[in-house]
Amino acid sequence: MRHTIPAAPDGGGHASASIDQLCINTIRTLSMDGVQKANSGHPGTAMALAPCAYALWRNVMNYDPANPLWPNRDRFVLSIGHASMLLYSLIYLAGVRDVQAGKVTDAPALTLGDLEQFRQLGSKTPGHPEYRHTTGVETTTGPLGQGCGNAVGMAMAEKWLAARYNRPGFNLFDYHIYTLCGDGDMMEGVASEAASVAGHLKLGNLTWIYDSNRISIEGSTDIAFTENVRRRFEGYGWHVLELMDANDTGNFERLLADAKAETTRPTLIIAHSIIGWGAPHKAGTAAAHGEPLGVEEIRETKKFYGWPEDRSFYVPDGVLAHFQSGLGARGAVASARWQALFAAYLQAHPDLGAEVTAIINGTLPAGWDGGIPTFDADAKGVASRASSGTVLNAVAQNYPWMIGGSADLSPSTKTHLTFAGAGDFQPPQWGGTYGGRNVHFGVREHAMGSICNGIALAGIRPFCSGFLIFSDYMKPPIRMSALMNLPVIYIFTHDSISVGEDGPTHQPIEQLAQLRATPGVTLIRPADANEVAQAWRVILPMTDRPAVLVLSRQNLPTLDRSVYAPATGLAKGAYVLADCGGRPDLILMATGSEISLVVAAYEILKKEGVSVRVVSMPSWDLFEAQPEAYRASVLPPDVTARVAVEQASGMGWARYIGLTGEAVVTHGFGASAPAEALQEKFGFTVDAVLAAARRQIARA
User: Fold this and answer.
1) 193, 445, 646, 662: which one is catalytic?
2) Residues ≥6 apart with Cβ < 8 Å to 337
3) Residue 20: C-alpha distances to residues 15, 25, 54, 250, 377 (Å)
4) CA angle, residues 380, 386, 392, in degrees to nearest 5
5) Over the stretch 96-111, which tens digit does the pLDDT of each residue have?
6) Residue 331 to residue 325: CA distance in whole angstroms
7) pLDDT at 645
8) pLDDT over threshold 70, residue 5
9) Region Disordered: which residues (predicted)?
10) Is position 531 annotated as part of the catalytic site?
11) What pTM was estimated for this model as a whole?
12) Mean pLDDT in the chain?
């Protein structure tokens, strides 16, 4: 039996002592104690939402704590990641087993001791939940709104998996995604973008539970947030329900059942709560949001709960057993049934079963690279966005669980999958199927990135695309991809001032430096079509990091590889493209479209008798990962006459040109004009490269 509890303490009495209430108050007190011991954190939301979280986990969610990698488990996303002690308490009470090196162990994911180490160095309970760091955490949620976007991606992934792999009698995929979000998420634009996508796609497998406590760090949300959230989500096409008291677990479970029964729309449950519920002086105030309650406030709160006032991290007898008898028992049965179903599926549908196994194991399909073309030498050449589109389509035909699209730019980014059967990921009402491979994100770059992270978390290989300048709108999800080691492929075109007439608002300058500075991101800016093909060969086997492919709008000459070094050198990040046969007097280096400039300069200088080396440097991070001996063989330390050329900010090039080298780079924001005029104005010409080269030779 579950109870409706008064909305706020009146200074006396205590909460019900039923076993359900003991479990709820255990979550509350563990959260309070963890934050207090760390002297840092956010206790109030965990205290307010403990009843909802308890009811969802123990009585509703389809999840096996003994098999947290079960592919058909329901997903729980804590988008309000600052309330991490709520999730850690749930993981501990549920008895989730730990995962090490991709294998489930007999050890608990979290112990009571881990909760006591909240926010401490090396602990399994960091300030915000981190995917892979703590088993039971389905995604890393830090900046508000990211978890909402991830959840939409997870829901899209389930729809795609079900459409491709479910067969009569074999309902392999039918899981639901539950997300706890808050006022901050509702204010963040990325959550709104993601909600709009979910409404359009009619994702009936998605439920957001909105903790409407009307408090933020600065106080009442009335100072900045007075809109009608219900009407906004109804406008998005969501099914909106309302829970007037977050303590009313019985009604909450009825609303969850209503949400799951609604299969044609995502559901928002607006749960009205009082932050810090139970705290006599801080409940309903900003003081309960982002700081410890304090020893005396905790003592009085525990008294209200009917809790031992001087005991910390106290778990009453029977709480663990009761919690696990719901979630664990239910999940064990469902997980075992699924494993038996999948074993039969492998017999009935071996080819599809092999695909599902590869998705689960994170492996590539056999022959994935069989169709990658080799491009003939061509002085006129082709834009790297176009050659990439050719390679992408060749690869995707052999990689069935690779899906993606663009933020309304696929005709420009050349990322539309055009082969027979590719189709569009759309509900039937919009003329597609959930098994389509082309995803239309709309003009929603930020949500596109966070959605792709959610798709990747399901084992599907996502790609997304836009203009390089719009990577500014995508820095948070790209960073989160890197933090989670997710192999999302980001394709950015229109990579320089040579975008031309669109002008400085659309001409990227500092974006390469920003992306190169992001740890765990591999950035590749290929110089011609064959480097593009090699880039895809390098990117796709990377299953532990995101990759950024930076491509041109303008044509790039396809180099004659019988004259210049093979494009396979790209795999090492930088390689000697052309050489003098001995010790060079000068090294010319560049990336992408600027390689054609340094190659042209090289040919002129070679005729003049100058010993010159050309180095193509499409990926700095791959180059830095090579042994020192290789790096020195490409860039000999004793050759100090060096020129680097790149139509971007010069930040970072000093590492390769040294203190005396010269960089032909961009120093401003560009201008609106045809590309040829811009290249002349900003010094990206063969003559400018030659002038820099001759200055270097004279200095040396």
Assistant:
1) 445
2) none
3) 11, 9, 8, 11, 72
4) 140
5) 999 999 999 999 999 9
6) 10
7) 98
8) no
9) 123-143
10) no
11) 0.96
12) 96
